[in-house]
């Protein structure tokens, strides 16, 4: 099977955004409870962002600060781990270290968004220490951060491009003549492109982009999709994966379509 046709032979990838974080029963995003809930539903992939404390402890947490989702306060990069460790998400759940997620749920793969430059070295060290190369995908808004992580690892890992590479892929895909060779060149070193369906008024996911990325052997994952009708429509369009807060709804949709597992 060639890389250019591999996406056609696999079932859609379901990714639980910050764990099973949607609905009234699983609102504790980025907690081990949310990650375990996703794993218990049968999810093979979860998504998380990472930040590092002042001494380099890597936490699986979305925000730069503790304030929005926990009873703690302050910028994670400026706080010691002992302070972050005392914070509780929604007053109940501790903030997990990425290493906890990788070691406590060894059957789960993790899509990791590198949110800060300070997280680069701790992330490299964590992946190496856990031997998790086959279980992670490295993503980042910053292509520089993404490339820095990849360069520091001893083995290749999956990767999704940052904003600048994604924009270049989008523009190349819409060129009338030279698009396909340029997309193929830009596809080097990545396995999936993870995008929103729209960004403001711009339609990011277009049929032409989907064809071009598939032609270059890349999978296309769309975030963050929480409504059943949107899930069904995007899957019918041919996307290869969906990132969702509603892990329960997406599982139901994929089971009904015979595409779960």
UniProtKB/TrEMBL annotation:
Name this polypeptide is given: Glycerophosphodiester phosphodiesterase
Domain GP-PDE: 12-254
One example GO MF annotation: phosphoric diester hydrolase activity
InterPro entries associated with the record: GP_PDE_dom (IPR030395), PLC-like_Pdiesterase_TIM-brl (IPR017946)
GO biological process, any: lipid metabolic process
PROSITE patterns given in the database record: GP_PDE (PS51704)
């Amino acid at each position: 099977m060639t890389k250019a046709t591999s996406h056609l032979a696999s079932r859609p990838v379901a990714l639980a955004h910050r764990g099973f974080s949607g609905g009234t029963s699983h609102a504790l995003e980025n907690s081990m409870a949310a990650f375990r809930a996703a794993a218990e539903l049968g999810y093979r992939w979860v998504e998380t962002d990472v930040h590092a404390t002042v001494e380099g402890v890597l936490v699986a947490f979305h925000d730069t600060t503790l304030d929005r989702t926990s009873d703690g306060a302050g910028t994670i990069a400026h706080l010691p781990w002992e302070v972050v460790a005392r914070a509780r998400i929604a007053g109940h759940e501790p903030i997990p270290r990425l290493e906890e997620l990788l070691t406590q749920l060894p059957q789960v793969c993790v899509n990791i968004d590198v949110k800060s430059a300070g997280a680069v070295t701790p992330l490299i060290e964590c992946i190496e220490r856990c031997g998790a190369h086959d279980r992670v995908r490295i993503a980042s808004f910053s292509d520089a951060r993404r490339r820095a992580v990849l360069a520091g690892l001893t083995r290749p890992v999956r990767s999704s491009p940052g904003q600048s590479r994604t924009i270049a892929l989008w523009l190349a895909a819409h060129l009338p003549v030279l698009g396909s060779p340029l997309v193929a060149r830009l596809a080097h070193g990545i396995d999936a492109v993870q995008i929103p369906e729209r960004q403001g008024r711009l339609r990011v996911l277009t049929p032409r982009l989907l064809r071009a990325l598939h032609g270059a052997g890349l999978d296309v994952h769309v975030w963050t999709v929480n409504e059943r009708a949107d899930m069904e429509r995007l899957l019918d369009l041919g996307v290869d994966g969906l990132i969702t807060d509603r892990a329960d709804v997406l599982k139901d949709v994929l089971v009904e379509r015979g595409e779960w597992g």
